[in-house]
Amino acid sequence: MAQRRSLAVPYGALVLAVSFLACVATGLELSVNNHAADFTLSTGLDPAISLSCLVHNSSQAEELLWYRGDGKVDLKDGNKVNISNICISPVNESDNGVTFTCRLARDKTVQVSVILDIQFPPRLSGEETLHVEEEKDVTLTCNSKSNPQGQSIWLKDNQSLTLQQSRHKLYQTSEVFQLSISKVEKSDNGTYTCVVESPLGNGTRDFHVIVEDKKPVFPKEAIIAAVVVVSITVFFGIAARKDKFFKVW
């Protein structure tokens, strides 16, 4: 009986210890920039963004981890315990939609994430010259990114373009704006401007369309056939008169 009692005491103490540690871990909380839950941080193309992660209700030193997406962020030794700061600098368009997460090292379920909402105006400019033959098709393509997403309009010679359903087609995604013209005519000559509008600003790109005369088309098969016929005719003509040629020589 004494042996059983001596074994039961350590086991009970172990259960209490595990329960106590679980309570301690559960009571810990994190906050990022004073947010205790996941949030979205909206900002422009600022020089830098600072994120500060803080441990709450801790009774001991707690190590913190930072992640950019699924990748772990390297932290200096003095920037890991109970409070940890990271800086994104410079902020650019590629940071839009990226998630940064601060986690407790010994219990990674304790975490707070922040999604970056980087807002910027459309980025497009310049010009392009396109030569197209009459009755051929042509497509003008604008590539532009912006946040919030921009909307496109097309101008011709600085005037609103009148779209003809049978000849003009528009295509738009979040980053691509296209105008297609089928069977171009001489009247399609001119400067087409792609204008991408957003609440933060506009961007433009010019396309100089030059419609050239339709080139005469010679069917290759007919030319080859004609050459073959002429060659055969000449050959048999010479063969038929070979005796006369020999007499002359």
Automatic annotation (TrEMBL):
Q: Give the primary localization class.
A: membrane
Q: Which GO terms describe its molecular function?
A: cell adhesion molecule binding
Instruction: Write out the transmembrane intervals.
Output: 222-240
GO process annotations (BP): cell-cell adhesion
How does the entry describe its membrane topology?
A: Single-pass type I membrane protein
Q: Which residue range or ranges hold the Ig-like domain?
A: 10-113, 122-212
Q: Which PANTHER family match?
A: IRREGULAR CHIASM C-ROUGHEST PROTEIN-RELATED, NEPHRIN
UniProt-recorded name of the protein: TMIG1 protein
What species is given as this protein's source?
Answer: Irena cyanogastra
Q: Which gene encodes it?
A: Tmigd1
